[in-house]
Please model this.
Amino acid sequence: MYEVYIDHDSCIGCGECKEACPEEVLDLTDYYPIVVDEEGCAGCGNCVEVCRQDAIFVNKVKEPLEAIV
Model:
């Protein structure tokens, strides 16, 4: 599972990240990207690569360990 963070203070609203995402995790609202399906993020990093402002980050989230019964 991955967590997507967008720094809206740095973002210029170009929409490149939305276009680069093959999983359609991002959408634009008022010209700025928002995460609409965080669980769908495959962690490919395409959005990070195209962001000229370094305003988007993708972090792997550790899955909770299931109790062994």
